[in-house]
Design goal:
Layout: E1 7-13, H1 17-24, E2 31-35, E3 38-42, E4 53-56, H2 63-73, E5 75-81, H3 88-91, H4 98-114, E6 119-121, E7 123-124, H5 130-144, E8 148-152, H6 159-163, H7 166-174, E9 178-182, H8 203-223, E10 235-238, H9 240-244, H10 246-256, H11 265-268, E11 272-275, H12 283-293, E12 298-299, H13 311-320, H14 325-342, H15 351-355
Parallel strand pairs: 1-5, 5-6, 7-8, 8-9, 9-10, 10-11, 11-12
Antiparallel strand pairs: 2-3, 3-4
């Protein structure tokens, strides 16, 4: 059967030219430099594990290569964000990062304006200077044409940590922002984050487990407290399917438990969408999240750039929704179209698909 809708990817990253320049001039981690025949970023601080280099290829910076790949894979539009996974914000004070975020936001805005049919974006924000971030989020909306901001998920690990972001969310409410919570720690000035554990064995699989714990904890904060009540016009996108689907499964258990009695999950998640990027792309996890929360709460995300090919994730999501065409269309297209339209990031040529979505 021929697909009759555009696929929208809400989880993708890139490095602006200024990123390579600013981090390339650093002599200590976090820094960018040459490692053999390719570039790499050296990480440090919370979330960096035991350190070492994180290699990256040309898809991070080469816009033509990206567009060619998206065409080959059948991706109509991407939402771009800064990769908080890399931990730059967590490792450095504001005095060493604000120029990086400002330049990234300016150059990302320029990219969106050059290719409005292919890209929307959220602004990079600081967690070491939240007053600056509030001003930058306003600038992102008013002058840059961006639709919100990206923040590290561990800033919302607890109600105590989330409360420190309240002034930023007041600005987000005023501008009807889309706030994206991505992997990573906030700067240490944000109290109430999870412990940063270094493992001596099975570091990769233990990262997946910790990742689930971190994201599910953010869901507990945002879906099951009244933190979001003053901000009804803010939408929240949580990466990695809320921790490989753990957030949805924990919510289901809370819903069926006679001891907890949380009430309707549809109400709790009314402002929250989960994306399928990276550690949220397992077909069983995607299917479980859809079963528990409904297909209207899940959006496709590829984690492109860290992952050089969107197609494996796309095929797993298609497999998870293969028996329900309406759910497949919702996850791959119509949910994202509605979100982008709500925030002014929907290209004109895609409007007709939003209006014909089931």
């Amino acid at each position: 059967m021929v697909q009759s809708f555009p696929v929208i990817d809400l989880h993708a990253h890139w490095f602006a030219p200024s990123t390579l320049d600013i981090l390339g001039k650093r002599t200590e981690a976090p820094r960018i430099g040459q490692q053999g025949d390719h570039l790499a970023i050296w990480r440090t601080g919370a979330g960096a594990g035991k350190g070492g280099a994180f290699p990256f290829g040309p898809q991070w910076t080469d816009v033509k290569k990206r567009l060619d790949h998206l065409d080959e894979a059948g991706i109509a539009h991407q939402l771009l964000s800064w990769p908080t996974t890399l931990g730059v914000d967590a490792a450095l004070p504001a005095s060493e990062t604000l120029n990086l975020w400002t330049a990234w936001n300016d150059e990302t805005s320029s990219l969106v304006r050059q290719h409005p049919d292919r890209f929307s974006a959220v602004a990079a924000l600081s967690t070491s200077d939240l007053a600056w971030s509030a001003r930058e989020l306003a600038r992102a909306h008013e002058k840059l044409g961006l639709i919100g901001g990206v923040l590290p998920v561990n800033g919302f690990f607890s109600r105590a940590s989330a409360e420190q972001f309240r002034p930023l969310f007041e600005v987000a409410q005023a501008h009807r922002s889309h706030i994206y919570l991505h992997t990573g720690f906030a700067n240490p000035v944000i109290a109430g984050q999870p412990p940063n554990i270094l493992y001596e064995d099975n570091e990769a699989i233990r990262w997946v487990i910790d990742n689930g714990f971190h994201f599910a904890s953010a869901i507990a904060t945002l879906a099951f407290t009244d933190f979001l009540d003053p901000f009804p016009d803010v939408t929240l996108q949580i990466a990695m399917l809320g921790g490989s689907g753990l957030g949805a499964l924990a919510a289901e258990q809370a819903e069926v438990s006679p001891r907890i009695q949380v009430g309707s999950l549809r109400h709790h998640f009314r402002q929250i969408w989960l994306d399928t990027g990276a550690a949220g792309s397992g077909s069983a996890a995607v299917a479980a999240a859809i079963r528990v929360l409904g297909s209207e709460r899940v959006v496709f995300g590829s984690d492109y750039a860290p992952l050089p090919d969107v197609r494996p994730t796309l095929e797993r999501v298609r497999a998870a929704t293969s028996t329900d065409p309406d759910s497949q269309r919702a996850v791959l297209s119509s949910n994202a179209l509605s979100l982008l339209s709500r925030h002014g990031g929907l290209p004109t040529h895609l409007t007709a698909f939003k209006d014909t979505a089931p």
